[in-house]
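Colleagues,

For the teaching module next term, I've prepared a clean inverse folding example: a structure given as tokens, and then the sequence designed for it. I'd like students to try predicting residues themselves before seeing the answer, so please don't circulate the second half yet.
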């Protein structure tokens, strides 16, 4: 249906058949004997070359064929004379759908910085780098759905507007229809949320987990894949205010099953990208190599495809938080006081500690388990010693935490105890607590930050460059 895409045309055997190609001009080059137009429609990283003879078209028409303009080209598909491609189009007719005045069109055929491209997020999908990232992002999303579908999971849509704070970190965006200039007040002078749209305070969800657990207590294996929102003021290369999370939740899974699933899952979706996004990954690999050209040999990172294959082919290292602290205490940077933050049992590992474990010590992905209860969420199952919880974080090279998850506390009294301990009003999650009253079951789950996965697979340094329209502090332009 619809016109042939350039990806399909490039795979068609040339028999001088007539063909229509539609796309945006990447470059136009005029030589004595021919005019070459490189056209791209985003279906592939590769352009199709279209060739006209000098004098075939008016100077006026040719002037409007500039980088960024959109064309319909009619012609013949012929074997290419040049070396760069197998086929090309011998142009018979050009229709200019839309011009792009080179005086003002910001995307010129030269290298633009990623920072500059972020300022023109409406146009950056037309660059090779961003179209490659967007195609890979799509392939990974497709692989996620197909992995879970094959594994007997059901896709559960959890609410985006909620009244609970699943992570208890208080980093929520408020949702309200109250007039901020005329706030209704209670007799005590507080804001009267009974008059708000939902008759209570509401916010954008930070995680679909709590509702996901309700699904798992009926369908056994579910997953969510939706937007989540965090109003943390982190201006880092790993944080977004709006990001997509994948949260599987499984009845009858213990922590070990959870780790096995997490490891198999990320390996399978990365494998899918390796098998289905070869051209785009090659392009990004070359781009990275180009970027690092001026670095000394020993500081260059391993080529992207090699890094991805390594992660797929090797078992992740599994150890407890307590063992990780012991390794850090014995480490060179700790002894030489090179870590910025102190190390000791009970600390929340900072990214320098995580990176030391993954990039220096083990040199592969690591799954850390059994963290101190004080630094983890209320819903995690207490270990027998009462000091640690059945948590698991998957740490990746260059990324840090890519997955966070746990076995869940299925015992009603213990869970209620934790709810009180961390200061959550049990009334706000009575429905969650009831699952532990009615047919409770051991269960586990985790959350994978989708953009961190895309970042890892594409090798991009900044998370703002792997989502079409990033949201971060002071930025919601597009
Ligand atoms: O570790 P987190 O906060 O875990 C949860 O939300 C659990 N409810 C998940 C579960 O057990 N179902 O977040 C999970 C993952 C992190 O490991 C990270 O990859 C990603 O979500 N993440 C972010 N990604 C981008 N920007 C942010 N601000 C992120 N915060 C977390
Ligand atoms: Mg976490």
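(Answer key — instructors only)
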């Amino acid at each position: 249906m619809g016109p042939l895409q350039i990806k399909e045309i490039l795979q068609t055997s040339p028999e001088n058949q007539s063909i229509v190609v539609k796309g945006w001009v990447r470059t136009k080059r005029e030589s004595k004997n021919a005019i070459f137009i490189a056209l791209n429609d985003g279906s592939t990283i590769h352009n199709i070359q279209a060739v006209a003879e000098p004098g075939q078209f008016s100077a006026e028409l040719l002037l409007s064929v500039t980088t960024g303009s959109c064309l319909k080209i009619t012609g013949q598909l012929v074997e290419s004379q040049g070396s760069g491609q197998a086929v090309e189009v011998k142009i018979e007719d050009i229709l200019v759908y839309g011009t792009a005045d080179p005086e003002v069109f910001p995307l010129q055929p030269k290298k633009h910085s990623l920072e500059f491209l972020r300022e023109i997020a409406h146009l950056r999908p037309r660059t090779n780098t961003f179209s490659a990232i967007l195609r890979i992002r799509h392939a990974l999303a497709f692989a996620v759905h197909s992995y879970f579908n094959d594994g007997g999971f059901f896709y559960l849509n959890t609410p985006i507007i909620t009244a609970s704070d699943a992570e208890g970190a208080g980093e929520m965006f408020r949702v309200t229809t109250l007039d901020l200039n005329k706030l209704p007040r209670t007799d005590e002078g507080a804001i009267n949320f009974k008059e708000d749209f939902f008759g209570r305070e509401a916010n954008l969800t930070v995680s679909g987990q709590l509702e996901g657990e309700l699904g798992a207590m009926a369908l056994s294996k579910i997953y969510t894949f939706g937007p989540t929102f965090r109003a943390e003021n982190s201006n880092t290369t790993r944080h977004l205010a709006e990001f997509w999370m994948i949260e599987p939740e499984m009845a009858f899974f213990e922590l070990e099953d959870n780790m096995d699933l997490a490891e198999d899952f990320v390996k399978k979706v990365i494998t899918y990208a390796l098998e289905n996004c070869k051209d785009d990954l090659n392009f990004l690999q070359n781009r990275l190599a180009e970027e690092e050209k001026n670095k000394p040999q020993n500081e260059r990172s391993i080529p992207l495809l090699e890094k991805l294959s390594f992660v797929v082919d090797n078992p992740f290292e599994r150890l407890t938080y307590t063992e990780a602290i012991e390794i850090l205490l014995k480490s060179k940077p700790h002894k030489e006081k090179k870590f910025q933050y102190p190390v000791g049992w009970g600390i929340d590992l900072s990214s320098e500690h995580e990176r030391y474990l993954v990039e220096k010590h083990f040199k592969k992905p690591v799954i850390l388990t059994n963290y101190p209860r004080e630094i983890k969420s209320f819903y995690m199952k207490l270990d027998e010693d009462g000091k640690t919880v059945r948590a698991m974080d998957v740490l990746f090279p260059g990324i840090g935490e890519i997955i966070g998850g746990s076995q869940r506390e299925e015992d009603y009294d213990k869970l209620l105890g934790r709810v009180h301990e961390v200061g959550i009003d049990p009334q706000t999650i009575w429905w969650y607590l009831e699952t532990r009253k009615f047919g409770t079951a051991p269960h586990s789950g985790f959350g994978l930050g989708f953009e961190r996965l895309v970042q890892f697979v594409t090798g991009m340094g900044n998370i703002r460059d792997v989502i079409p329209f990033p949201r971060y502090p002071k930025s919601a332009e597009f």
